[in-house]
Structures are given as C-alpha cells and as structure tokens.
Amino acid sequence: MFGANSRDYQLQSNNMVVTIFDINKYALIPHQTHSMLSKREGEMITSSITSMLKDSYCMDEKTLKYMTRFYTMDEFGKLIFARNQHGRCGYPLCNKHLNTPNIDINSCGSMISYCNGLHYDCTNFVMTQLHEMPIYRRTGIHLINRYDLTKVNEENQLFQLKLFEEILQEKTMEYDLDTMTDELTKFGLKL
Ligand SMILES: [Zn+2]
Questions:
Q1: How many domains does the chain have?
Q2: What is the pLDDT of residues 52-93, one digit of tens each?
Q3: Which domain holds residue 179?
Q4: Measured in angstroms, how far is the CA atom of residue 32 from the centroid of ligand 1?
Q5: CATH classification of the domain holding 131
C-alpha cells in the first residue's frame, strides 16, 4: 500500500509544492489504522515526507510547522542533505535551486548548502526545536484528521514550533515601536 501511494505521489506531484493535505494523504493515512507505530512504520512516515520534500518545498509556514513534528534532528539533517543532492536550498520552505549557492556550511562533517545565510539560520532555528523522540515512541502523533484544518492549526499551536522569520518580524516590530517612542520623546510626547 505504501509503495503504491508513493508512486501515486510521484506521478501527481510533478514538482508541485507539498501541502498538509499531501503529507496526510501520502505519508500518514496508510498508517492510521492503528495508534501504535512500529519503528519501521515510523521510519516509513518520515522517509515518505522526505521523499516528497527532497525535490519540492512546503507550501507555507503552516506546512513547515506541521511536517517538522514528525522529525528528529537526525532525520531533519537527512532531509536537508537529500534536498542538497537535488540541487535545492536546505531550508524546506525555500523554493530556490542552488545553481550558484552563495553559502556553504560545514555541519557534522558534511557540506550543507543554502541559498543564503538567512535560510541557514532559519533551518538551524527549526532544528533546535525538533522532538528528541522518534515518532514511533509518540503514540498517536500520526492520527491527525486529514480534512480538519482547524484541528491542524490547534495541533500546530500545541507543538509551538517558532520560525526564525517570526522572531525577526517580532524584533522588527519591537524596533519600530522603540524608534517611534524615541521620536515621540524628542517631541515631549508619550506613546
Ligand atoms: Zn533558501
């Protein structure tokens, strides 16, 4: 069943972006008949998501947050490596190819490439938050309702992965507020 789904995915995807729906349909649903996963099944789920993303990218930030819950740091490292082998920037949210990679980082003895320094930071920031426990030891993690986006959003909040882009945005807003307060103080006004 898994093999057939995997082939379906390759036929249908044809370099399209990866969505939460895709992850559910092609990686999770084949294993949703039971709540306890074997080690092998857990590995199949993660490697199935990796095979979707190695030559594609996450549709949006929500999808990235969603897929990361199925990865340990080690597995995420393999995903980045697989993306590089397909000439893609290591950051799974990035749609860029590495025709002229402008940054090479030596991570754990292997060269990992990103389209720019920001995506190196973004990837490392995600990796520091990944679960240490593989999914087969987290009962029920794969049983998320495929069509219920509200539930997915709730789960995203529970998982609470923070993206580097969000931190930057918050910092920019804080900075703007500080600048504005300074400007107002100059004129003897208060915010
Ligand atoms: Zn990139």
A1: 2
A2: 999 999 999 999 999 999 999 999 999 999 999 999 999 999
A3: 162-191
A4: 33
A5: 1.25.40.820
